[in-house]
Each structure stands twice: as C-alpha cells, then as structure tokens.
Amino acid sequence: MKKLLYLIAFLLVFTHARAQENRGTLVPAKIFQRSVMVGGSVSGSYKRINITSNSEPITGHRQQYDMDAKVGYFVLSDFAVGLKGSVYHYKEKMADQIPTQATNILAGPFVRYYLNNGVFGEASAAVGINNRPNASKTDLMEYRGGVGYAIFINPKIAVEPALMFSYYQEKRPAEGNRKLTEWGPSVNVGLQVYLFRERKFHLTR
Most buried one in 92, 121, 129, 192, CB count within 10 A? Predict the structure, then answer.
C-alpha cells in the first residue's frame, strides 16, 4: 500500500513538473524563438587514455569532474546557439607513472534542439590552452554531443539530466606534437533558466 502511495505521489509531482513548461502561445514549440537560456551543469566521468608518440604507446585512465556554464539564444523556436565555458579538474594514472592532477579551461560554441516532449539534443566544440607550472604548453580540443531531458519545475527553470559522449585531445608542440586522446560517456545534471520573449496577439476582424 505504501509503495502504491509513493508511486501516485511521484506521478503527481512529475505531471505537475511537466505542466510547468513554456506554454501560453499559439506557436507549437517547447521554447519560443528569441528566448535566452542561461545556466550550467556538473558531471563526472571515467575515461581510458591512450598516448601515442615516437616511443611505445602508454595507456592509463582518468577520473574527471566538470563544470559547464552556457548562454544561448533561440534563433528559431526550439533551436538555440550559444557559447559554453568549461572547467575540468582531473586525476590521471598512467602505467608505471606517478599519478597527476590538473585543471583545464576551455570555451567554444554549442547548439541545442528541443522536441515538444522535453527531450533535447546538444553538440559542442571547444578549445583551450593549459600552461602548467614547469611544464610545456598544451593545446586542448574537445567535441561533445548527447541527449537530455528538460524537467520544468516552473515556467522558466528546468532541471536537465543528460547523457553526453565526448572526444578530448591534448597536443604538446614542444614534445614533438605528443598527443593524448580520450573518449567516453559522462552523466550531466544541469540547471537552466529560460528568459522567454513575451508574445502579444491582436484580434482582427
């Protein structure tokens, strides 16, 4: 009986959350054109690493914790473009080496498209430079894409869980273009604020 009551309560909350979305317009869209989105997300991931150079390949793994901040503009209903900045802190363990940790900063564009049921797809690209103390300059590049779901807790704020897949690369020109590449999934939980454009309709006879 208690399980049934918990299930009913969950369904009521979920239905209420879905109802708190951007409606009140004659345009059948989840997010109106010319709206603005501001927010960010946090995520964690575990990735396998493969380093190729003139010598033998080196393998290892990395635990990473990410924070993203983004600002987007809906150029079309349900379709947004914008800029995203990311801060990555990671701990890395390579075969036969001492564990290391570092913080990277990247920035670049992103695009996002929503379906009317709240599901969205997002893709982004970012570049950065990491100048570690007592180490050579590192050029950074990342491509990321995935899907998520916007749960509106009120008409302008949504919690957004998402599953993302990324390809990340570090290149060190001073070391003969030594290259590190990573790929793998990550689970994000984001919070977005949507600043909707108000619409007014005039009745004509």
Answer: 192
